[in-house]
## 1
Amino acid sequence: MNHAQSDWTVDFLKQLNTTGCEVEQIDIASTALWQIESNHWQQFAELALQQDLRWVAGWAEHIQDRFFINACFEKQGVYVLLRTIVNAAKLDLPSQATVYPAASRSERHTQDMFGINFIGHPDNRRWTRHKAWPKHSYPLHKDFPVQGTPEPITLPDMDYPFIKAHGAGVYEIPVGPVHAGIIEPGHFRFQAVGELILNLEERLGYVHKGIEKIAEGRTPESLARLAGRVSGDATIGHCWAACMAMEQAAGIEIPPRAALIRGILAERERVANHLGDMGAICNDVAFMFAQMQFTRLRELWLRTNAKVFNHRLLMDRIIPGGVVCDLSDSSCALIKQDIVQLRKELSDILPAVDLNSSLEDRLYTAGYLPPETAAAFGTLGYVGRASGQDKDVRRDAPYPPYDQVIFKVPVETQGDVASRFWMRYKEIKVALKLIEQFIAHLASGDILAEWQTPPTGSESLGMVEGWRGEIVTYIRFGADNKIARFYPRDPSILNWPALERLVLDNIVPDFPVCNKSLNGSYSGNDL
Amino acid sequence: MLRLFKKILTTGIVTESFKTPKDDELEQLGIEIKRHLDKEFSGSIAIREVDAGSCNACELEIHALNNPFYDIERFGIHFVASPRHADVLLVTGPVSRHMQTALLRTYEATPNPKWVVAVGDCAACGGEFGVSYASCGAVSNVIPVDVAIPGCPPTPLALMKGLLGLMKG
């Protein structure tokens, strides 16, 4: 962190002081931790918004008879962890969602899982809870048993109060949770007139698997495995963020070679997913040429993963302290040769795609997300960067090995499906260069640092740029090397609400391509 | 358009085929699957994929079955959009409690005779998630399962072997 960057925290602390919002500064492993009184919770958000701070994540924790409520903010690559403590006797807290729309679903999740009452929340309907546990029962309370008390058959969530629309010619289309394609489950409720979408409401939570609860009491290795399955397509991203947080809490530095290999893994994951998505976007407008070509390239890429790293999707390649598999010289040569080949193939395919007028007709101007809306919802990754959000953890808060390389972060303001398609292509090009640089930097050395048990209560935040965007993971250790709290914030949590906006005034048949252009994770959202 | 046709022509056919095998295992599997399909399923089966709580990794590999390398449709196996058109349900994930009724209804909507394949470690035995307040664990805890294909996630080849296992009964 350089001096210029940290300036805003100094000024902001002064401003908070003058407005009567007292901040107690606590040092934790990675990030500044500011603790405030609960009655200043909303006021803090108002001041933060004035200072252009970005709302990053929110979560809570049950410790004895108190609840720690956390929110994370960021500006210029500097993250601040904000905390307040409320007593179990009175679980009230002023809502920050009134100030930051991005905080809305997160607060609803905390409300469902902890029973915190966010006063003044603009939409306090339940979110993660369907019918698997009763209303006044909260799974993340320490006295809630991990097995719960489920009914033999969990009833469907029939009485969720969806937003209604009335009027001549207005009709509703319910979609899901079981979709027509090979995709994850979720429910979408459209209000339409003719083909035009008047409103879309997402109802997620169908793949809620209790990840936060079953993380409690795990060892670091076991948690890394679980983190790698928060969202299977982003296994490297989540596993890395969790391991980073655990390593910081334990005071471990990973060997430089391990960091470089993690970088290669992360960029390979980015390329594989972007290739898949680019094909799928074209498939959703029935342009099969591109779908076949991109799935072919993705398959080749995954086969190299299997050869070099012994797993097509790279699961469990990152472990606490480093990585599992080393890279031989011949593997490096294979990876480099693959990159040359992929560049050549893409330079054939992309002009053919670019020149196709029917594709142009479907992708351009469809699903437009204005930069202001993207900013208000804290939209991340390629979705944000296609709508002017110049954010990338790899550059803004560089972590090894990204601190050793120079690279560009592509940003556009076009904000439509086409922009999100081409953003992926630009990101592939950057990722390929990064892999080459990481290979060039590889020097012989260890790939695993020795683990040491972190002190009881130590906590940390891990931040990485996953392929969908910024992943923020919070870890607190309990006694004996066991996890007390794990909260992974997938970028999808912030990107899903943007979908509700960008489909407005589009036609219903364009919903699949709009959805694919965003490609949020259901599993990463529902936890 | 010329560029497009040129790319199609120069790419050629990458599908790992019967006659000019690039991958012996795939060829062998394909022939065997086709033989059983012809004999017992009148030439084809229709699959409805149901994600009942997976992390999406299994879906990615099921998708890969349709890429031009595996092109599973040439063996008479195709994916359909409705359970009402399906012979086989391919179920992934531990069954989340929030998906339990949806899975039961999908199963009921599938006409008899029907088969259920549990795909991936989570579907086979609960995997990393097991049984909890939010998860029913293995698919067999919710609906009858004919074949389980383990793996986290199973590779496309493992998926094809599993489907063959189903046909051999």
## 2
Amino acid sequence: MTAMTHEAEHHGPPSNFFQRWLFTTNHKDIGTLYLVFSLVMFFIGGAMALIIRAELFQPGLQLVDPYFFNQMTTLHALVMIFGAVMPAFTGLANWMIPIMIGAPDMALPRMNNWSFWLLPFAFAILLSTLFMPGGGPAGGWTMYPPLMLQHGMSFPFVIFSVHLMGISSIMGAINVIATVLNMRAPGMSLMKMPMFAWAWLITGFLIIGVMPVLAGAITMLLTDQYFGTTFFSAAGGGDPVLYQHIFWFFGHPEVYIMILPAFGIISAIIPTFSRKPLFGYSSMVYAIASIAFLSFLVWAHHMFTVGMLLAGSLFFMYATMVISVPTGVKVFNWVATMWRGSLTFETPMLFAIAFVILFTIGGFSGLMLSIVPADFQYHDTYFVVAHFHYVLVTGAVFSIIAATYYWLPKWTGHMYDERLGKWHFWLSVIFVNILFFPQHFLGLAGMPRRIPDYALQFAEFNMISTIGAFGFGFAQLIFLWVIIKCVRGGEKAPAKVWDGAEGLEWTLSSPPPYHSFTTPPVIPETEAPAR
Amino acid sequence: MRLESKKSAARAGGVVFGLLAAAGTAHADFALNMTPGVSSVSREVYGLHMLLLWICTAIGVLVFSAIIYSVIKFRRSKGAVAAQFHHNTTVEIVWTVIPMLILISIAVPATKVLVVMEDTSNSDLSIKVTGYQWRWGYEYLDEGISFISSLDRQSDLARQRNPVIKPREVENYLLEVDNPVVVPVGKKIRFLLTSNDVIHSWWVPALGWKRDAIPGYINELWTRIEEPGIYRGQCAELCGRDHAFMPIVVKAVPEDEYRAWVEEQKARMAPGRQEPAQAANPAPASQPQQALPPAAAAAQDVVAEPTLAELMQLGEQAYLTNCASCHQADGTGMPPMFPALKGSPVVAGDIDAHLEVVLRGVPGTAMVSFAHLSDAELAAIVTYKRNAWGNDTGELIRPADVRAAR
């Protein structure tokens, strides 16, 4: 091992800044670019969320025009989904998958560079629409026609930027699949792979399966607007509901694209800090695979109130309910992993435990939403807003934060500030619940989503929620500071940062050499399944 | 399955489910939980919701207890030594099969309720609901009554930025309309839902459901309201700038009171109707329990040859109700999405071109067709636009001109 690292150190990164970051084909540099980009987007999307919550602090319109409010809800979603969560997972895949499976780099390094560098341009275009005549898109991130076709200049720019994001995601997914399937070290069979690699392999197929469908839907919107087609216009013989079917055929797997890699991360962190192997490795793999498969069969559960055949409603209700079984298996397995372990509570573990509890709450409201008659009441209310923020913020985002703390010493070679990390955790977990839990009550009491102003009986919980939002938002500045501080210096991190950690990434120095595993490591035949 | 529980049980559910339930007793106005509603269907839906809530709560208690127990009991700082087991097939089968059984126990009642909800046959009366940006149109198909229902004036004033009255001073802020939907109790009412422009969603929580109003589609769902009362709701599907400002008010009254209201409406509709076949409606004038506002009264009295002053008076009212949320009360609009009308070349230009925009809308923009307004209202609005805010063209558009342009 030492011989190999020495050899690799002869080839460091280019010293020229532009050569290194603009032209890089190195998986670690590209991973870093993705992660920094997603952090910037997280704060931009977060600022939009705070504008939304500030307007909702009190009844009445205090700060923004309703039309601008709609732009904020639309862009907040697009920025967070395509700018923050998905690139963060791609960044983690770039950094970690090659060094987890003993590969020297990603399979397609030049495409890797391109798939990253599309993103800054895509988001520059998307965000520039805010400064165009008529402002940004205001039809919701779902972009339903006919509303989406009432717009200012922004519309074609939004479509084009979403196309770019889609191309970037597809290339990233192809790269992960090619890497995982072709570049594993000798002896690492698929069923010995770390769970993160498994989760991403399956996510990759989801991305390739559905991003082109989204591209098709929004291209049809574009031709409806500019080339005289009437795919979605009832007046021209088209069907506005068709768009929703196509969109959600993308949209539901997209939800799992944002959560399956999180499952992989949590399955790495909990065993490390429980000092115990992951419980039920193979059932975890099958659970992820069956969730991914089922995700293609449940899209219309976003559309129960659109009105469909009774048989259709029943099919989509049953299929959606079934998803809770493999999801439950995952939660039970994580708990069983902690059971009779030897637990310590460093920041990554704290976020991972919070993930399991809070994601499960999001899962409960998801199960409730799958029941069609009840969904007729829940749909398009703050109950739904609470549901998907529990799975996306305390689910996906918490897993990304946990992963950052877990691997930050590996990336930088320095330990992060554990005291600040704990502050970040406790403030985040308290405020995020103040932010989103009352939204369950608001939804049940009858507050629709996507409204800038509300009736007086919703005032108290909206005020509480806004206080939570600002607390949660500002707590993330601690996260930023911890990262900056850790990159700049700190206590030297050993190769094996966490004593309970298993896996190839911990055999490399911290930080790993610029080129690692140029000679594949050998995995012993007898070794127990990885985590 | 039906959990006959009133407020206290609702609160209890919230308490178990919630972190902030203690606040629930402090204030009478707000609810923590779904309303049981006022129809048999809404109570079934509520029962289903409570069943789900309790099942989730029970599972949550089990899972979270196991996590908390592990966190307390199996800490390394307390000397816990890690066991090394990593699977147990029996346990894994058990926790796959038991959730399946729980799901089946939910699916059975849910299916039953859904089958009942979707059965719209044998209804006693049918009401067609049309979504407009941003108001609702109602048409009683059996009675030939129709009208438009918009946000009431008080809420509309209070929802502006820097408002003249504060939201907290308005009773039923954002949940009050000028013309409520009056329906009889105890009758099976079938609602037919469609839209004139973008997708809306008609939702009154007390009835137990919402359903989308989609252009080109007619959706249907039904209710049988059991208790007289006023039930409020809102549009639930994002429909543009004023999505938050198109409430729904359903007024359920005893059968004889409903009949009296219907006769009153029919009498009102009879003389003013210009083209009864057309789905639209005359003026925003059907206010059973209030005195008619001056403009609405004027709309009824407008004759074939109104004076400029009459048209301007009616026009201002109709403009404020229908046009001002985008083009603003002072006609300055919010360019470029919502163009100014003050000094606008369209408004100052050819009358036929102006009428064309109002009647047909402008494709690809937020300007939709306003053909659902009456000839008298459109004539007044167009006249008002062409003479207000210094647009002084001095032109007068008569209802007959509008009819000719349709």
